[in-house]
């Protein structure tokens, strides 16, 4: 079962028929598993990794360290939810170390991100401090590398 | 001084040894030239992994360069590497070799095979090999002064050399049986029973076995039979292997031979005069591969397995019946139903649909009627290649189903 999802994780467009062949499982079983996984949230969504730079669209991203005060009964979850509900927040994690929440924020420009931090994030009662790191360059995301031109095939066309 | 063309030709001819001059060139030279002239080719004719060597291995080799590991090593190879190998073979196949006396690190398994043959062959000795087989087997035997004796294999016997067929060809001159399973070009693997039968035969007729196990790790759904691990076979087997296929390290040229001391001593004698030692950087990389490479090996095996199933299914669907390969990364479909011979098929397919496969005859006369398709290539390329092959078969008006 795991290999079905591994194949899908690598290629969201793999068809049930393809997966069935590669994982050596009947097509109807693969289809059933996928349907079920879509329903129970094992598969959250099918997305595409786009290199926006190629389209000349340069969003601004920031990684923000947030120190927060945990609340009785709910720990960090309630404040985390308050924060991640903002559409500007692309990802949010609770982390160990010198701060508590690591959030990735996406904006059209630096101004937009600054406003988000100054007007929405920092004023929250439980937020004690924030440190904003603007992203300068993306090297690798979700296992895929940016900026590298895909390796041209270096293999000889025929070897025995 | 040579001053006329005709005498020059004659004189120059004499400068090349007869053995080399009469050695048939690789059956795919013509094909290679043709391939270079066609654009947008999807090549299923490559005999190497499409993965780049895992990063941790490359990184460790780079580090070794930074630290200045650029000198010769001992003839036999770095002690650490031999120790790691001994551990690896013991753990994986339960066969123990003394790292100091029974392991030789070579510049690829190709060198290992050459050394093994040169170390055992007296002029005229016969070496039994399967047909079809890897192209270097007969050539290396001839270069070592031996005589290759081909034993036909086919779909009925799963392309595995049968002990009864071997026995029928044993003469006073027979010195060894050279086998390579999982097989290039067929993808065949040996079962325990088949291996046992060959082992019994070797003992009965006092023969050596050279076992080329370069594809040992690329095996799907069964356990690899490591030939020297069979009872009583370690003493009469020369195991040849390397890192090219298992760890996607073809360009590093790093391999090894294991055998009993007297053989390793003999091989080392040739190795020390002809190669001195395997490249130090590649040896450092191999140490890392053995210490920390397992996860990546497993990942590649899993990936190949999915592609294997895809390719075999599609080949059968388009009307090229395909023996089920259980190892290496080759499918060996029959193209007999098309009415073409292997070379005609490969050439026409390349010209008309720009898909390169290797004619089975490149691997021996029993390869006639088959082509070798390598699935160490991306899934989209496999899919597209098979679409083109399907179109080719339909277009030729051949009803193969």
- The largest sheet of chain B has its strands arranged as 2-8-7-6-5-3-4
Q: Indicate the CATH architecture of the largest domain in chain A.
A: 2-Layer Sandwich
Oligomer: heterodimer
- By CATH, the topology of the largest domain in chain A is Alpha-Beta Plaits
- Pair with the biggest interface: A-B, 17 and 30 residues
| CATH C-level name of the largest domain in chain A | Alpha Beta
The SSE order of chain B reads HHHEHHEHEHEHEHEEEHHHEHEEEH
CATH homologous superfamily caption of the largest domain in chain A: Lrp/AsnC effector binding domain/regulation of amino acid metabolism (RAM) domain
Total separate domains of chain B: 2
Amino- and carboxy-terminal Cα gap of chain B? 65 Å
Largest sheet of chain A: 4 strands, antiparallel
Largest sheet of chain B: 7 strands, mixed
In DSSP terms (H or I, runs of 4 or more residues), the helix count of chain B works out at: 14
Distance between the termini of chain A: 36 Å
CATH level-two architecture of the largest domain in chain B: 3-Layer(aba) Sandwich
Globally, the shape of chain A reads extended
Specify the helix fraction band of chain A: 25-40%
Contiguous low-pLDDT stretches of chain B (5 residues minimum) are 1-8
């Amino acid at each position: 079962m795991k290999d079905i999802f591994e194949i899908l994780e690598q290629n969201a467009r793999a068809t049930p028929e393809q997966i069935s062949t590669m994982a050596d499982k009947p097509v109807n079983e693969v289809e059933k598993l996928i349907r079920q996984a879509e329903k129970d949230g094992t598969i959250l969504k099918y997305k595409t990794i786009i290199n926006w730079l190629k389209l000349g669209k340069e969003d601004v991203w920031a990684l923000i360290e947030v120190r927060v005060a945990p609340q009785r009964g709910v720990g960090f979850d309630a404040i985390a939810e308050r924060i991640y509900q903002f559409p500007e927040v692309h990802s949010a994690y609770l982390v160990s170390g010198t701060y508590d929440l690591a959030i990735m924020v996406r904006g059209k420009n630096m101004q937009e991100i600054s406003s988000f931090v100054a007007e929405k994030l920092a004023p929250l009662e439980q937020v004690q401090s924030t440190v904003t790191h603007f992203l300068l360059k993306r090297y690798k995301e979700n296992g895929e590398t940016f900026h590298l031109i895909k390796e041209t095939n270096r293999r000889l066309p025929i070897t025995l | 001084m040579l001053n006329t063309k005709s005498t020059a030709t004659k004189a120059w001819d004499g400068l090349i040894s007869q053995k080399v001059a009469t050695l048939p060139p690789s059956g795919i030279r013509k094909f290679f030239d043709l391939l270079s002239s066609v654009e947008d080719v999807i090549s299923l004719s490559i005999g190497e992994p499409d993965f780049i060597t895992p990063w941790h291995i490359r990184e460790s080799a780079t580090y070794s360069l930074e630290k200045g590991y650029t000198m010769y090593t001992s003839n036999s190879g770095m002690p650490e590497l031999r120790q790691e190998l001994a551990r690896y073979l013991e753990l994986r196949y339960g066969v123990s070799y003394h790292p100091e006396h029974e392991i030789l690190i070579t510049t690829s398994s190709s060198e290992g095979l050459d050394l093994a043959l040169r170390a055992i062959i007296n002029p005229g000795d016969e070496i039994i090999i399967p047909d079809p087989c890897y192209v270097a087997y007969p050539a290396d035997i001839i270069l070592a002064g031996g005589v290759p004796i081909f034993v036909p294999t086919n779909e009925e016997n799963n392309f595995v050399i049968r002990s009864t067929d071997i026995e029928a060809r044993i003469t006073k001159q027979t010195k060894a049986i050279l086998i390579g399973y999982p097989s290039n070009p067929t993808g065949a693997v040996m079962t325990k029973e088949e291996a046992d039968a060959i082992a019994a035969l070797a003992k009965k007729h006092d023969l050596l076995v050279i076992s080329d196990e370069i594809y040992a790790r690329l095996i799907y759904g069964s356990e690899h039979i490591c030939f020297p691990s069979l009872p009583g076979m370690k003493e009469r087997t020369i195991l040849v292997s390397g890192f090219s296929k298992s760890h996607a390290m073809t360009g590093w040229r790093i391999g090894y031979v294991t055998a009993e001391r007297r053989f390793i001593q003999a091989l080392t004698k040739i190795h020390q005069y002809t190669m001195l030692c395997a490249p130090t950087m590649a040896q450092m990389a191999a140490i890392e591969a053995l210490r920390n490479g397992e996860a990546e090996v497993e990942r590649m095996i899993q990936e190949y397995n999915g592609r294997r199933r895809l390719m075999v299914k599609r080949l059968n669907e388009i009307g090229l019946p395909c023996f089920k390969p259980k190892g290496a990364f080759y499918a060996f479909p029959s193209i007999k139903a098309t009415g073409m011979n292997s070379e005609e098929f490969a050439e026409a397919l390349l010209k008309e649909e720009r898909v390169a496969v290797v004619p089975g005859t490149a691997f021996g006369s029993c390869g006639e009627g088959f082509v070798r398709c390598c699935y160490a290539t991306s899934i989209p390329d496999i899919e597209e290649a098979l679409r083109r092959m399907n179109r080719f078969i339909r277009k030729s008006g051949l009803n193969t189903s």
